[in-house]
Each structure stands twice: as C-alpha cells, then as structure tokens.
Design brief:
heterodimer; A: alpha+beta; Alpha-Beta Plaits; elongated; B: alpha+beta; three-stranded antiparallel sheet; about 10% strand; binds iron/sulfur cluster; Ferredoxin-like protein (chain A); Fe-S_cluster_ET (chain A); iron-sulfur cluster binding (chain A); iron (chain A)
Chain lengths: ~80, ~400
Amino acid sequence: MRIIVHNAKCQGHARCWAQAPDIFDLNDEGYILPGDIDVEEKDELLASRGARSCPERALEIDRTSDALLDRLLFNQHCGG
Amino acid sequence: MVRDFSLFTSAAMQRTKNGDPHAAVACAHAGPPIFFSPYNTRDGRGTWVITRANDQRKLLQDTATFSSHRSIFASALGENWPMIPLELDPPAHGVFRSLLNPLLSPKRVMALEPAVRERAIALIDMISASSTSCDVMKDFAFPFAVSIFLRFLGLSDERLDTFVGWAKDLLHGDGIKRTAAARTIVAFIDDLAAMRRKEPADDFMTFVVQAKVDGRPLRDEEIRGIGVLLFVAGLDTVATAIGFDLAYLARNPRDQELLRSEPDRIVLAAEELLRAYSTVQMIRVATKDIDFEGAPIRKGDYISCPTMIANRDPAEFECPNTIDLAREDNRHTAFAYGPHRCLGSHLARREIVIALEEWLSRIPDFRIKKGTAPITYGGHVFGIENLILDWS
Ligand code: SF4
C-alpha cells in the first residue's frame, strides 16, 4: 500500500502523526513532509487509520500497487 | 433560501437551563445545505450558512474566493488592523504562520506537557481536599486553561480573574462592554509589548517584539494584531470545551466509568467530544460574485462555517448525534479546515486530554448537583456556566 501525500493540502492538524508517529513525519512547524509513503504490510492498518483521520483529505490511500502485485502473483501462480 | 436561524438569536441560543445548543443547531441538516440567515452575526448582519462538512472544507480551503480579512476586532474600535494570522489571507498569512507555528507545534506541546499536568493536579487536589462539590467552570476549567495560557504568554496568574472578565465582556457582553473590553485589551497588549522591548524576558511577547519577517522587524500594528489574537483566542475556548465534556460525563455515568477504568481511551474520546461539542463559527467574506452549490453569493457577502453544524453532518459522520467515545472515523472540524486551522489546536487538545485524565483519576463518580442546572448559550463562541458537579 502507498499513501499519496497531497502536500499543498496539509494544514498541520497532525492527526496522521498522532495515529502513527512512525509512519508520518512532520516538519518543525508541524506539517507533513513531502513525498509519498510506501507502507509495509504490517503497518497498513495504522497507516490507513492515520490517512483516514486527516480532516483536509490530504492523504490518499493508494492500493493500485497492491492490485498490481496481486495480479503478478496470481499470474505467476497460474503460470501466466 | 432565507431561513430564520441564527447562532445568536434563535431560541435555543439564548441562556437556557439544561440546554443543548449543539443538538439544536444540528437540526439545520433537515433543511438546505446552504441558506441565508439575516441575523447571524453579533451586529445583526446576515450571513450565508454552510451546513455540510464537505462544503465548509471546500470553502475554507479556497482563501482566494473567501477572504478572512475582516478586522472585526479593530472595527469595533473604529480602527482598521488585522488580527494576525487569522485575518490575513495567503500569501501574507503564510509568513506569520511560519513564524508562529513552531511555538505551538505538536512536538513543542509535548515539552509543555509536564507543566500543564502539574497545574491540573494542583487545582483538582485543592478542590477535592476542601469539598465534594464545586462549580467546575469557576473552580477548575477557567483557572486551569487560562493559567496555562497566561504562562505561555509569559504573564503571571495574579490577574487571571481580570483577564477572564475582559474576555467575558468581549465575547458575551453588550455593545458598550464589548468596546470597553476591546480598548482595555489593546492597551494591555501595547503596554506589554513596550515593556518587553525595554526588558526582554523568556516569553511569547518578547519573541514577537524581537521577531523578523521578510528580514525586517514587525511593525507595531503587527505586534498588536498577534498579541490581541492570542490573548483572546486562548481565554475561553479550552475552558468551555472542558466544561461541555464534563457536563456530558456527569450525565452519562457509563461513559464516565469507562474512561475512568480505561484511561487509555481518553485520547480518542476527547476527539469525539471535540466533534460533538465544538464551539466556534468561522466567518469569511466573498471576494467576488460566485455561485456556491447553487447559492448566489455576492462580493462582500459574509459566509459562516459553524463547526458545530458541520460536525453533526450525517453525510460526514455516521449517526452524528450519537456520542460514541470509541468513534474512529472522525475527521471533525473543531479546529476548522484550511490554512487558518487553529494555531493553538495541539496545545488545546493536550489540555483537554490532561484535564479529563486528571479529573477522572482524582474525582470519584460525579454528577450534576441536585437542584442545580447548568446554563448553556450559543453565540460567537458557545458557552456553559453554573456547572455544579457533586461527588458526595
Ligand atoms: S492530518 Fe492531514 S493536515 Fe494534518 S498533518 Fe497530517 S496530512 Fe497534514
């Protein structure tokens, strides 16, 4: 899973960081650092909680990479 | 599109015993998402009212179309200077915001925590040593929130009651009292700035008089704009939030017991209480004619985004009028949306959580004292008083 960070929308509520301080990094002013975030599978629950708690909708959960991966694995399985 | 509804003059907004102004405004969702309210400001000026969270978000994020430059405080004195950063629009806003953000960032607030907790404990211990009942606004919520805030500004507690009195007159007094309070506060901030210029201390005002933006020192008017805003913003909002929260817990013993026995739940519960009992409305001015979701907003029109209405929006929150202390999906707008997101929100949150933690761990099973009734009211900041709690 990836989290797409819409940096310009971040207003420093720090809700994401409060939920998952190891996944979301804030700068000294309390706003999120730029750059999308790749989330390891074990952290997915926490990360999505953090993303879903952003009042500005600045954090978008992107599962397309998972879907790609799934398809790849499926194809490998089926010998495709 | 015109509705007879106002956060100032509607029936449920008047001082009411055992009132529930938040539930009263939630009824707005039964009507149109946007409407015009002819009396929805203190000066009797009308505003558009935006009821949906999603529309409020769009509007408050669009600072080019919806300006927050109103000089509301200054205009009460026949003057014209903005409270900073609230009444500045981007990009000027960003410069001051960047200056002030680090002072109240989440990490900075963590450093303030021990002092905040110590203050809460001292007050509660004093109360519980002397009685099994108290007026929680007067004896705890105000002295706690205001003293933390005064300490942040670098002022001593001695004049706490005076300051709270000024804030009361300013926010809830009649026209004459309001103007007098505004004058007093401005003079106080100007004096304080002059004092810190002469004799710097380790405090907020010293920081402001020594600060630079764009490579130049701040102008007197800018220093005043920042000082006045911080002074006013911190005086009654946190105390009021604590009051509404404790009133809720006093009336809902099961939730009270839950938080007392599992204090880890308080952080999440505080968010739900912020959602359910938010107390301020944001007002913006249209910078051009615009049709917003079907409403013909004209240049110069006032638009109100009441947080307490958005926070009860059924399109945003499942069962919005149910208070569920374990609610997880809770992107509430108690601190507004957009660049003007409350600068003090991180400190406010911590204060509320700490107040609840310490109150619940030190005061047993409490309820509203028999024969008393807390009074609530609406207005520019919703309020509660006469909240007598009893744990005898
Ligand atoms: S919750 Fe949203 S607005 Fe707040 S810091 Fe995180 S990304 Fe920014």
